[in-house]
Each structure stands twice: as C-alpha cells, then as structure tokens.
Design goal:
Helices cover about 10% and strands about 40% of the residues. With about 180 residues, the chain is mainly β. The termini are far apart.
C-alpha cells in the first residue's frame, strides 16, 4: 500500500474518531441549568394530586398513579418547574408539555404511557427523566419521547416501543444514567 493511501486512511480514521467524540456530551451548564428539580425536598402530603381535567398550570410536584385516561397537559409559566411523580401510573394518552421552565418525569414505581395517535411524551420544554422505577412508553406512529428542547435521562429503566424514534431531542439528548 502506498504512503498516500496509508495517510488518507489515518486521516479518515482520526476524523471519524473526532466527530464521534464531539457527540459524547452536548449539554452546557450555561444553557441548561443542572440544578436537579427531581431532588426537590417534599413530603407526600405536600405533593399535589393531578387535577381531574389533567391540566397542570403552575409549578409543583404532582402525583400521578392508577389508571389515567384523561390527557395530561402541562401549560405552566415559562419559569415554572414541574415534577410529574409517576408511581404505578398507567397513562393511556399523550403526556403533552406545552410550556414550563423545566419538567421532570420522576419514575418512582413501574408506570406506563401509551399513545395511539401521537408521541408518548411530547415536550416543548426541557425534559428530564429520573428515578428508580421502570417507565414503559409506547407510541404507535410517532416518537416514544420527543422534546423540542433538551432531553436528559439521569435515572430509571426505560422500555420503549415507537413507530418512529424512541428518544428524540431537537436540541440536545443527554444520557447520564438509567437503563
């Protein structure tokens, strides 16, 4: 093999390695606050029940459990931090996050989200998935979990079935934990 071919192969290999290395960590602390709102100190008595119409309009920690057939919609102020504490929840519609500052899906126990006509989770805000539990997300035709902003996975066990992408973030996708 000629020296020119060897040099070309080495340069191509190094270029590929550099491109892959650049993708390993994409979230900059200056653009995505790293203060974990999933670790907000609260007692079970302080956590709010999910409103009967499924619409969340203010900051806080919301308990979601049991069989939920009403669509869950987060439409809170742009600076609001919202935690959806999923514990044994079976959600049979899209979880739609229209507006909020940061949203955390805290998976405390085995839970599931299933959508036949949209993304399983559709977020227009920064979204973090955390917790020790298992979350099964099914979307027949679209992404299982979709964020127009940053999507960060820091904990939990995710089991995903999707017609399109499993996890999709328009800005940055970061996986720092979970399985």
């Amino acid at each position: 093999m000629s020296n020119r071919k060897s040099l070309t192969m080495i340069v191509a290999g190094l270029s590929t390695a550099l491109a892959l290395t650049a993708c390993s960590k994409t979230v900059d602390a200056a653009t995505f606050p790293t203060a974990s709102i999933s670790n907000v100190a609260y007692s079970e008595q302080e956590a709010k029940q999910l409103p009967s119409d499924g619409t969340i309009t203010e900051a806080g920690v919301y308990k979601v459990s049991g069989n939920v057939t009403t669509p869950i919609t987060v439409n809170a102020p742009k600076d609001a931090s919202v935690v959806l504490r999923l514990d044994g929840a079976t959600i049979n519609s899209t979880v739609s996050i229209k507006q909020a500052g940061d949203v955390v899906l805290y998976v405390a126990g085995d839970s599931s989200i299933s959508s036949t006509d949209g993304h399983g989770v559709d977020s227009k805000s920064n979204l973090t998935i955390d917790g020790p539990g298992k979350l099964t997300v099914t979307s027949k035709d679209k992404d299982a979990i979709h964020s127009d902003e940053n999507l960060t996975v820091t904990g939990g066990t995710l089991e995903i079935s999707a017609g399109d992408d499993g996890l999709k973030a328009v800005k940055n996708l970061t996986i720092d934990g979970g399985t």
